[in-house]
């Protein structure tokens, strides 16, 4: 009974806020009475690992076989050692991925399995990449709701129980038609019209709530559309900007599913992965917020085509608009204001449109050359 009374007092303080003091004292109060978001058995705290800044973190990446996970694992393994970064997914990994470092099956909807992986591998950082993206999410709302929302709840509880540092990416898709679109600041109206966007706003808010309520070290970046050469996108609205390179090299022709003047924020994968590493390593006291926009460039299909045609004048682009993707794109930011990330933890992108196009073409040309040699 006294515990319940103390808890409700703590909860009341959390809701009302304490003038002149930050969230830290509340966090300490909550932890000192061992209040965790989900009922846990007593052995859970025995297995939890405290991460000292001088140690290497032990990282688990969920949804790691998508467009971004393998590249992130490579970057983190270079920094923390091969065996300190575990990739996981529900799909079978290709040989090259399986032999490049630890891989494990993990379905984020299976709470016990997740917990077992975190405990047995003494995980200290969790990068939560599993999700259904915007276009596939609209095609399967029930599954998107389950993976993106129920799965996130499992991740938050596991991370809070085991004192993990948790990274969850958000997206330009977390904004909607009533948000300011050019530029979109960190804090503004967020009323997305896709299940993907709704689930990502939910993730931002839940992560920040767990941070204030339970002291969870939650970190979140809103990624723009990510462009990569050696991995394929998983069904998003910005995928055209990757597909155009494949088709340009293979056939010299591309059919674009967005209108020529659809402007969206975009980023080369190396910038995205480096930003993720940098925000994960940033000292907590540099983070004035827990969810940041990050930006690099912003372009339309027409502008991307023109940049490509500087090197491939024969490239032909036609337009066959997909109404679902177009409606999504028309509700998203055109430009992202990432001044807080630049100010707080020194975010700076390396790739603008010309460097992006050059790097992508170099990759595909080299791949074609190698294929001819073999
Ligand atoms: N790629 C982008 O342009 C972009 C932009 C903004 C944000 N993001 C975010 O970054 C993260 C990674 O994006 P991505 O492009 O690699 O996504 P992706 O769609 O390519 O990969 C997602 C992975 O999640 C896995 N998955 C699905 N259900 C699962 C489950 N139940 N348990 C475990 N794994 C499951 C899939 O098998 C897939 O490999 C996502 O959260 C996405 O929202 C991506
Ligand atoms: C923008 C991002 O979240 C993803 N590439 C999508 O289009 O759905």
UniProtKB/TrEMBL annotation:
The lineage of its organism: Eukaryota, Metazoa, Chordata, Craniata, Vertebrata. InterPro entries: Epimerase_deHydtase, NAD(P)-bd_dom_sf, NAD(P)_epim/dehydratase. This is L-threonine 3-dehydrogenase, mitochondrial. It catalyses: L-threonine + NAD(+) = (2S)-2-amino-3-oxobutanoate + NADH + H(+). GO terms for biological process: L-threonine catabolic process. Catalyzes the NAD(+)-dependent oxidation of L-threonine to 2-amino-3-ketobutyrate, mediating L-threonine catabolism. Belongs to the NAD(P)-dependent epimerase/dehydratase family. Pathway: Amino-acid degradation; L-threonine degradation via oxydo-reductase pathway; glycine from L-threonine: step 1/2. It comes from Oryzias latipes (Japanese rice fish). It is an enzyme of class 1 (oxidoreductase). Residues 59-294 form the NAD-dependent epimerase/dehydratase domain. Pfam families: Epimerase (PF01370). One of its GO terms (molecular function) is L-threonine 3-dehydrogenase activity. Its EC number is 1.1.1.103.
